[in-house]
C-alpha cells in the first residue's frame, strides 16, 4: 500500500508516552515487592486475601465448604448442592446482596447476604463460632442452614423462597 493511502496513526504526545513508560517502570519495580509479600504471607499462620480465617478459599466454594464443616460439628444437616442451589437462586453468589423490594423490606427488615436472611432470623439461628455480621458469608450460610433445618429438615428441602 503506498504511504499516502495508509491510515494515519494519531500522534501521542510526549507526556503520554512518558507516563506510560514511567508506569511500566513502576510496575516492574513493584513486582519483587509484591512477590516477597505474598511469599512471606504464605508461610505465616495469618490468612491471605485468598483464604478465610479457617484456611478455606475466600470464594463461594470455600464459604460453602467452611460452613459445611461447622454444620457437621453442630449436627446441622445439609449438602453442598443444596446450599449452592439456594445461594444461586437467592443472591447469585453475592455476599452483599440485599433485597429492598419484598414484604420483609416493606416492614423495614430486608433480606441480606448469600441466603437472603432477615436480621431476626439470623439472630435467632446464629451458630456459635461464626461472625455476628449477617453479611459474613460463612455466618450467613450457617445461620440460614440452621433455620432451614429447624423449619424444613434441611436446606436440601428448600426449593423456593423460605
Task: Report the sheet-strand fraction.
Answer: under 5%
Helix tally equals 6
Order of helices and strands: HHHEHEHH
pLDDT below 50 for ≥5 consecutive residues: which ranges? 18-45
Strand-pairing-aware structural class: mainly alpha
| Largest sheet report | 2 strands, antiparallel
The largest beta-sheet arranges its strands as 1-2
Helix content range? 40-55%
Number-wise, the strands total 2
What does the overall shape look like?
A: globular
Determine the mean pLDDT: 81
- Span between N and C termini? 68 Å
Domains (count): 2
Protein name: Transglycosylase SLT domain-containing protein
Organism: Streptomyces capoamus
Keywords: Signal
InterPro entries: Lysozyme-like_dom_sf, Transglycosylase_SLT_dom_1
Plain-language structure description:
This protein has 162 residues and is mostly helical. It folds into two domains: 8-46; 60-157, no CATH class. It has six helices and two strands. It has helices spanning 14-43, 60-74, 80-91, 103-106, 119-125, 137-152; strands spanning 98-99, 111-112. The chain has a two-stranded antiparallel sheet with strand order 1-2. The chain is globular and about 40 Å long. Keywords: Signal.
Amino acid at each position: 500500500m503506498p504511504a499516502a493511502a495508509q491510515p494515519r496513526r494519531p500522534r501521542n504526545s510526549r507526556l503520554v508516552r512518558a507516563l506510560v513508560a514511567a508506569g511500566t517502570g513502576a510496575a516492574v519495580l513493584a513486582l519483587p515487592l509484591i512477590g516477597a509479600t505474598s511469599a512471606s504471607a504464605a508461610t505465616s499462620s495469618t490468612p491471605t486475601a485468598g483464604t478465610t480465617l479457617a484456611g478455606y478459599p475466600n470464594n463461594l466454594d470455600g464459604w460453602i465448604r467452611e460452613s459445611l464443616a461447622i454444620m457437621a460439628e453442630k449436627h446441622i444437616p445439609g449438602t453442598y448442592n443444596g446450599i449452592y442451589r439456594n445461594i444461586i437462586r437467592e443472591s447469585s453468589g453475592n455476599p452483599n446482596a440485599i433485597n429492598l423490594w419484598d414484604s420483609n423490606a416493606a416492614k423495614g427488615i430486608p433480606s441480606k447476604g448469600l441466603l437472603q436472611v432477615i436480621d431476626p432470623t439470623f439472630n435467632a439461628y446464629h451458630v456459635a463460632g461464626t461472625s455476628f455480621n449477617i453479611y459474613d458469608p460463612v455466618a450467613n450460610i450457617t445461620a440460614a442452614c440452621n433455620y432451614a433445618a429447624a423449619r424444613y429438615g434441611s436446606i436440601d428441602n428448600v426449593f423456593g423462597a423460605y
